[in-house]
UniProtKB/TrEMBL annotation:
InterPro entries tied to this protein: Ice-binding_C (IPR013424)
Residues passing through the membrane, by range: 187-205
Keywords: Membrane, Signal, Transmembrane, Transmembrane helix
This protein's name: PEP-CTERM sorting domain-containing protein
Domain Ice-binding protein C-terminal: 186-209
Entry superkingdom: Bacteria
Signal peptide: 1-24
Protein source organism: Rheinheimera maricola
Amino acid sequence: MKNTVTSMAKALFVMALFSAPVAATPIFTFDEPGNSFTNGSWDFALNFEVLNQVTVTGLGYFADPTTGAVDDNAVALYDSNQNLLASVIVTNTYDVFDFFRYVTISELILGPGIYQVVGVSNSDNYTWNNVNHIFDSNIAYVSNSWAVDTDGVANYIAGSQTDSLFGFSGPNVFIGDSRDFTNPNAVPAPATLAIFGLGLLGLVARNRKQK
């Protein structure tokens, strides 16, 4: 029994050491905003396709670098049947991470399919035609949607527009390992497998000392 437990612990520990960490990244990034403009409160939506299963760990909203501020922006994530999957209110409590402020949500697995993330601008500045706008390899851009905001709620927007490349940047989605979004330099949470393996090794070592 002792040899079996020892072998299991060593195997798990080796797997943890050599397994690649899950990438922690927004579904899209850019080097710098292309514009900084506002003309009222809008609902901005991004329709995207998940190509390979991803785990959503945060929802965020654009924080214009000229001010760095957000204004209690509502952000929501929907599936293609307009079912609400998650929603948050983004405030200035959260530090800026690549031009966005994010709020942590309970891990949400998205399988391949079409989804929409929508956010309310609350008259904050928004941007479009951003420099080096790139989507994660597991995500494909589908279209963008927008509508005049009337209630401050991030409602699903039917239809789509193609009036700018990748649409107007408001909401964003964070995928991969969870982060502490009050500290943008925080390291993603360690793998559960590594913790379990180290725990087993510790138990084996303690049993040996007792014997």
